[in-house]
Write a structure and sequence with these properties.
238 residues, elongated, 4-stranded antiparallel β-sheet, alpha+beta, 6 helices
């Protein structure tokens, strides 16, 4: 479909170019022949010159050609604008799907680390939990080490970045490569307080994302003792 659309655009542009070239060519010739420099030539009773002049003027552009060019430009505009919008939409959706796949892969690695550290069945508590080496007393959460960063976990999987401890979000950003310049977070109340991961260029839509009126983001919910974690792409309004 893209190739067909591209081919149509190419043909329309070529046709417009040829018509404009024709208009420009004959307009220039007519202007030159009507200029003061050619006045003397036009006054000369030369049958050959008069014949050529008459022929040239008769072959000039017509109103129909102008109308056709304007119509073709309109068609190109009508076809191109939605297509370019579609390209932007596809890019945003592709970005979200790629990020979701990366988060899902990272979650599996984090769970494997949690199993090795024997904390895959543990949740946070408000006091030091038996002196466990993977317990952060200040954050009040368990963690696994991800490239030198403490990624806080519950039941073996990452805590959502918008958690009670202020240390969770910055470490989550580092571990998953989500700088503030590229992504922002908010909570989606109508989905059980899931955390929305939103492209930074859509930060002006955060309030609409919160109440479900706009969807172009990823939602993450950490697991509970009875449910798995949830990770879903919402792209209806991308």
């Amino acid at each position: 479909m893209r190739l067909n659309t591209f081919s149509i655009f190419t043909q329309l542009h070529l046709l417009c170019f040829l018509l404009v070239l024709r208009i420009f060519k004959h307009s220039t010739v007519t202007i030159l022949l009507d200029s003061p420099k050619s006045f003397a030539t036009k006054q000369t009773p030369n049958l050959t010159a008069n014949c050529c002049l008459s022929s040239t003027k008769n072959n000039g552009f017509t109103l129909v050609e102008l109308v056709v060019v304007i119509m073709l430009l309109g068609v190109i505009t009508v076809l191109a604008v939605p297509k370019f919008t579609g390209f932007g939409q596809e890019a945003r959706i592709s970005q979200l799907k790629s990020l979701a796949a990366n988060i899902n892969s990272q979650n599996q690695l984090v769970y494997s680390k949690s199993v090795l550290d024997n904390i895959e069945q543990l949740e946070g508590c408000s006091y030091q939990c038996g002196g466990h080496p993977n317990w952060d007393v200040m954050a009040g959460e368990y963690f696994v080490d991800v490239s030198g960063t403490r990624l806080y976990v519950s039941l073996g999987y990452p805590l959502p970045p918008l958690s009670y401890s202020p240390a969770v979000e910055p470490n989550y950003r580092i571990a998953f490569g989500l700088p503030e310049s590229d992504f922002v977070f908010t909570q989606v109340w109508h989905h059980g307080s899931a955390t929305a991961i939103v492209p930074a260029q859509l930060r002006h839509k955060l309030n609409e994302i919160k109440d479900g009126r706009f969807q172009c983001h990823i939602e993450y919910t950490s697991p509970t003792p009875t449910t798995r974690y949830k990770l879903q792409v919402y792209s209806q309004n991308c």
